[in-house]
Amino acid sequence: MDHSYLNDILILFLAAVTVVVICLRVHLPPILGYLGLGVLMGPYGLGLVQDTATIRTIAEFGVVFLLFTIGLEFSMAQLVRMKGAVLGLGGAQVILTTAVAAGISMYFGLSVEAALVLGGVVAMSSTALVIKQLTDQVELHSRHGRNAVGILLFQDVMVIPFLILVSMPAAGEGNATSWISIFSAVAQGLLALVLIIFVGRWVLRPVFHGIAKYRSMELFTLSALLVTLGAAWLTGQLGLSLALGAFIAGMMMGETEYRHQVEAEIRPFRDILLGLFFVTVGMLFDISMLPDIWLSVLMVLAGLVIFKLLLVYGLCRIAGWDKAVSLRTGMVLAHGGEFGFAILTLALQGSMISPEVGQVMLAALLISMGIAPLVIRANGKLAAQFLPKAAEESKHSIEDKVADTAHGLSNHVIICGYGRMGQNVARFLDSEDIGFLAMDLDPVLVQNAVKAKEPVTYGDSASLDLLKAAGLGRAAAIVVSLDDVSTALKIVHQVRRVERDLPILVRTRDDSKLQELIDAGATEVIPETLESSLMMASHLLFLLHVPMSRVIHKIQKVRRERYQVLRRLFPGEGVMPDMWDQAPDDQEQLRALELQEDSWAVPRAIAELGLDELHVMLVALQRNGERIHKPEAEMRLMAGDTLVVCGRPVALEQAEAKLLSTAIS
User: Fold this and answer.
1) Of 105, 276, 547, 645, which residue has the fewest beta carbons closer than 10 angstroms?
2) Which of the residue ranges 68-82, 84-98, 475-489 would you say has the lowest mean pLDDT?
3) Cα–Cα distance for residue pair 205/200, rounded to 1 Å
C-alpha cells in the first residue's frame, strides 16, 4: 500500500522534526512551521499526505489534551472569579463580532444562516495557539492573559450553537425548529457539565487514591487518559465540543493532589498531537486559488484582524482596564481559530457557502493564525510602541501602587506569590513583627487581602521594576512561593542581576529543578516533598525519644547538604506519584550490590576498591544482619556482604560491573 495512514503519519513526523529544528534555529514559533508544513504537504500542495481525514481525526485529540491541561490550571473557584471576563467580555465579544460579520455577509448577498455561520467563524480565536504561546511566555496569569483566557472559554462554549446551526437543513423547515434544537443542545451541555463536575468532585479523588496504592505508572497513565477521553466522549455524545468536556475534567482533576503528575503524563501526548493539529489546519487551504482571490483574502484578513483588535480593546476599556492591558488583550485575540475552521469545514460540506467564499475565509483565517504567534510574542513591545504613554502609565500605576505599599518598609521580606504557602510565611513573619510585602497576579485574592489591611499588592513578581518598587534594595530577603518553576527561575535571574548577596528562598513542589534554581542563584530551595519527608522523620524521632538536639542537628545537616541524602532513592517501577517526573540521568540513585565468593571485591579492603575513581560513594555495609553506616577504609569485604552505593546511573553500572566481576584479577 503506497499511502496508508501510517505512511502519512511517518512522512508528517519526519517533516515536522525538520521544520521544528529550522524554526528553533531561526527563533520562530514552531506553530508557524506546522501551518506552513500543512499547506505544503496537504492535498492542495505537494499531495504527499493523502488520508487527511484520518490525520485530522487523530490530531483533534491534541486540542482535547490541551484543554485538559488548561483545566488543570483553573479550579472551579478561579473560574467563578473570572466570570466577568468569561460572561462579560467573552459574551459581548462573540455577540458583537457575530452580528457585525453577519451583517456584512448579508450585505454581500449571503443567506441569513450562511451569514450567521460566517459570523461565528470570525468570532472564534485559537485557544490552542493563544494558551500555548502565553504559557511559553509566562503571561497566562497576567492581566491581559486572564482576559484572553476568559474570552476564549466563552468562545469555546459558543461553538455549540454554531455547530448546530451549520448542521441544520437549510432555511425552509422554520426558525422555531432551529431555536428548539439550539436550546436543547445548550440544556444537554449544561447536563454534561454538571455530570462531569459531580464525577470529578466526588469520584475522581477516591478513585485516584486507590490507583496510587498500586504504585504503577502504567495504570496511572491509563487512568489519566481514560478521564480525559471519557469526558471528551461524553460532551461529544451530547453534540458539544470534545475539548469542552476535557477542560471541565481537567478542572476537576486539578483539585486533587495528583494534578502535577497527571499533567506530566498527558504532556507528551498533548505536544505531539497539537503539532499534528496545526499541520492539519494548514492542509485545508487550496493554495492554487490564491492568485485569483488574494485581494479578497487581504481585505477579509485586514477586516478580521483590525475589527477584532479594536472590538476587544473597546470592551476591555468599558470593563475598566487601562489602555495598555486592553490593547494587549486585543492583540492576543485578533486572529482566527481552530473551531472557526471546524464550523467553516461543515459549512462547505453542507454547501451552505460557496467554495470561493470558503477558500477566501480559509486563507484569511490561516494567515491570521500564521501571524498570531509573532504578534502575541511581541504584544508587550507593540503596545509600548503604539501607546507609549499609556504603556508607561499602566506600568507606572502598578509600580506606584507597589511603591506605596512598600513605603516605610526596610529590612523587610518580599513574598512573590500570596497563595497558601505565601500566606503561611506571612503569618510567621507577622508574629515576629518582621515587615513584609507580597505580590500576586490573582486580583480577587489581592482585593481580599487589601480589605484586611495586609501589605499585599497586584503585580508580576518576575518584573525587576516591580521588585525594585517593592524595595528590593532595602529588603532583607525574598521568598518565591509560586507554583510555576519557570517564573521562579525568572525571578531569581532578575534579582541576581542587581543584588548578588540578597537571600532568596524558593519553594518548589519537588526536587526536579532544585539544582537549576541553585545554579541560577537561589540561596535555599525548599522542595515540598522532601521537606514533608524531613518533618515526618523528625516527628518520628521525637516520639521515639531521640534527644531534640540530635534531631535538630540531623535536620540542619540534611538541609546544608541540599537534601542529598533524601534524594538518593532506589529506582523502581512502583515509586510514589511525586517521584514520577522521571529524574534525569544525572540524578543520584542508590543500588545494593551483594558480594559472592568469586566477586572481584572479595576479600579486598574498602580502600582498595577505587570507589572515588568510579564516582560512587559507599553509603552503608550490610553484614550478618547488621547495617554499618560508616565502615572503616581498612575493613576487608566478605562473601555475603551487601554494599549500598550511591551515584549516577552510568557510574553505578560501571561500579557493579567491576565489583561483582569474576574476570578482573
Assistant:
1) 547
2) 68-82
3) 7
Distance CA 579, CA 420 (A): 23
CA–CA separation, 182 and 172 (whole Å): 17
Domain match, 25 and 69 both: yes
Strand partners, 342: none
In the predicted model, what is the mean pLDDT of residues 231-251? 75
Residue 580 CA to residue 222 CA, distance in Å, equals 14
Averaged pLDDT for residues 251-274 = 75
For 46, other C-beta atoms within 10 Å of its C-beta total: 10
pLDDT at 454 over 80: yes
Q: Which residue has the higher pLDDT, 135 or 655?
A: 655
Asked if 165 and 314 sit in the same domain, the reply is yes
Inter-residue long-range contacts of 183-190, CB under 8 Å, 24+ positions, other chains counted: 185/160, 185/161, 185/238, 185/239, 185/240, 186/160, 186/161, 188/238, 188/239, 188/240, 189/157, 189/160, 189/235, 189/238, 189/239, 189/240, 189/244
Other C-beta atoms closer than 10 Å to the C-beta of 554 total: 16
What's 340's domain CATH number? 1.20.1530.20
- Give the range among 71-85, 149-163, 167-181, 335-349 with minimum mean pLDDT: 167-181
| Percent of the chain residues past pLDDT 90, beyond the cut | 14
Structurally, how many domains does the chain consist of?
A: 3
* 221, pLDDT greater than 90: no
Both 304 and 452 in one domain: the answer is no
* Cβ atoms of 307 and 97 closer than 8 Å: yes
More confident residue, 479 or 140: 479
Nearest-5° Cα angle at 589, 584 to 590: 165
SS3 135: helix
Domain membership flag for residue 571 = no
Strands 413-416 and 589-594: unpaired
Q: How far apart, in Å, do the first and last CA atoms of the chain sit?
A: 58
Distance, CA of 364 to CA of 348 (rounded, Å): 16
Domain housing 405: 394-565
Place of cell 551483594: 594
Write the secondary structure of 339-398 as one string of H (helix), E (strand) and C (coil): HHHHHHHHHHHCCCCCHHHHHHHHHHHHHHHHHHHHHHHCHHHHHHHHCHHHHHHHHHHH
123 and 244 in a single domain? The answer is: yes
Residue with cell 501571524: 371
Give SS3 for 625. Answer: coil
Mean pLDDT of 340-349: 77
C-alpha cell at 648: 549516577
Instruction: Look up cell 498500586; give the residue.
Output: 214
User: Is 333 found in the same domain as 184?
Assistant: yes
Q: Please give the share of the chain, as a percent, with pLDDT higher than 70.
A: 85
Per-residue pLDDT for 209 more than 50?
A: yes
